[in-house]
Amino acid sequence: MTQLAFVFPGQGSQYVGMLNDFLEKYSIARQTFQEASHILGYDLLRLVNQGPCKHLHYTWKTQPAILTSSIAIYRIWQHEGGRAPILMAGHSLGEYSALVCAGAIEFTDAIKLVEFRGRIMQELTKTRIGAMHAIIGLDRTTIEKICKKTKENQIVSIANFNSQDQFVIAGDKEAVYRASNACKSLGAYVKHLMVGVPSHCMLMKSAAKQLENRLQKIKFMKPSISIINNVDVKIEDDEYAIRRALTRQMYSSVRWLEIIEYISKQGITILLEIGPGKILSRLNKRISKNLTSISINDTNSLMMALDKHK
């Protein structure tokens, strides 16, 4: 039998109208959003369905929206008799989705936690402006050297190791632009990312301390399905280790390339992306030719996956 792994997207995969297909057909999807709305104190379902787009892109609203979307799809998968994966991983915020689906944290706790995470991340941008740029076409060593050379007493570093030739840099806005221009001069394609905060760099260190304090109040259980974390590319079962990894994730690089390589080495050939969009599936295809990566983001893709992996 073919073994499955599930991956969950992070910030950047949101858009107005995501999950409309599921919301029309499945009451479990609507109930999941209603549950989140009750916790948040505003109509998350309406925001996801109707926008406005500007509000959906506020970090403290983006994060609950993506988390809830992933949980809704996962619950539908279970409801329809979909087979359980043997491994899970999430890209940045997606790690929280994986923890909920593996029973390591309650959905109600996770919703409040990611909203708080989004707020403290956004708060930092009031005093220090940051940016995130995708760099495509250069290798890791070259980009690291450029960041070191162009930072000029500011912060700029690789935030995401997305594939062999796609990286994201983050830090102070001026330093990010200097590094990006240097990358362009070497032939790289550079894309400014429409995100509200410069995640996964040392600018987030003070926010990480606040998150650490909040995490101490959350009950974590042993995951029922193994989860590969972002910062160490390790599977952790211990409550303390999970909390510590989530804290460090705020200011540490997302090692997605290594995570997918790890999954491939376990003999897994099918990856299902559980959440809005297709960002991870596109990345995964760039990383490994041995993996079939499928996005479950509407009823058609769900039914096609269920036909093969029920």
TrEMBL record:
Cellular component aspect of the GO annotation: cytosol
Acyltransferase in keyword set: yes
Gene Ontology terms describing biological process: fatty acid biosynthetic process
Organism: Candidatus Pantoea edessiphila
SUPFAM superfamilies assigned to the protein according to its UniProt record, in alphabetical order: FabD/lysophospholipase-like, Probable ACP-binding domain of malonyl-CoA ACP transacylase
Enzyme Commission designation: 2.3.1.39
Protein known as: Malonyl CoA-acyl carrier protein transacylase
Gene behind this protein: fabD
Domain of life: Bacteria
GO molecular function: [acyl-carrier-protein] S-malonyltransferase activity
Family: Belongs to the fabD family.
Pfam family membership, one: Acyl_transf_1
Secretion signal, residue range per the UniProt entry: none
InterPro entries, alphabetized: Ac_transferase_dom_sf (IPR001227), Acyl_transferase_dom (IPR014043), Acyl_Trfase/lysoPLipase (IPR016035), Mal-CoA-ACP_Trans/PKS_FabD (IPR050858), Malonyl_CoA-ACP_transAc (IPR024925), Malonyl_CoA-ACP_transAc_FabD (IPR004410), Malonyl_transacylase_ACP-bd (IPR016036)
Bilayer-spanning residue ranges: none
Substrates-to-products reaction catalysed: holo-[ACP] + malonyl-CoA = malonyl-[ACP] + CoA
Positions of the Malonyl-CoA:ACP transacylase (MAT) domain: 7-310
Pathway the protein acts in: Lipid metabolism; fatty acid biosynthesis
Keywords of this entry: Acyltransferase, Transferase
Residues at the active site: S92, H200
